[in-house]
Amino acid sequence: MMDRKQELEALRDELIDRFDRYKAHKEQRGGPLDKDMEDQSIELQNDEVVEALQQEVEDELRQVMHALKRIDAGEGEECERCGEPIDTRRLAAVPYTTLCRTCAESA
User: Fold this and answer.
1) pTM, full prediction
2) What dihedral angle (degrees, nearest 10) is formed by the CA atoms of 107, 65, 69, 79?
3) DSSP string, 50-99
4) DSSP 1-51
5) Tens digits of residue pLDDT in 4-56
6) Whole-angstrom distance, CA of residue 102 vs CA of residue 82
7) How far apart are CA 32 and CA 40, in angstroms?
8) Are 36 and 5 in contact (CB under 8 A)?
């Protein structure tokens, strides 16, 4: 079984790969829009979806990197707000969390 740091590192690598694919898709789509209005509308919607997905990946990657820094500092199992231990079930469900359930719910 992978430990939490290995799990986060694997997730980090997957997120970077997804981010790069979304970025490449956007760069590839940089040409002129299709002449047909319906096709143009679909292209714009697809671009908006890709942009939203890329933003989600970026946000999650930021959280993963923050959690990895806390693990390296020896603080990965503690809530960064109250200092109490984070329940292992919460860490299993959300491996990049840095808050205990109580603090996360009050945030």
Assistant:
1) 0.80
2) 20
3) HHHHHHHHHHHHHHHHHHHHHHHTT-TTB-TTT-PBPPHHHHHHSTT--S
4) ---HHHHHHHHHHHHHHHHHHHHHHHHHTTSPPPSSHHHHHHHHHHHHHHH
5) 999 999 999 999 999 999 888 877 765 655 667 667 677 777 788 888 999 99
6) 9
7) 10
8) no
Comparing CA positions, the residue from 72, 78, 74 lying closest to residue 98 is 78
CA–CA separation, 12 and 28 (whole Å): 24
| 3-state SS, residue 105 | helix
Amino acid letter, residue 67: A
Residue 77 to residues 13, 53, 55, 74: CA-CA distances in angstroms? 22, 29, 27, 8
What's the chain's length in residues? 107
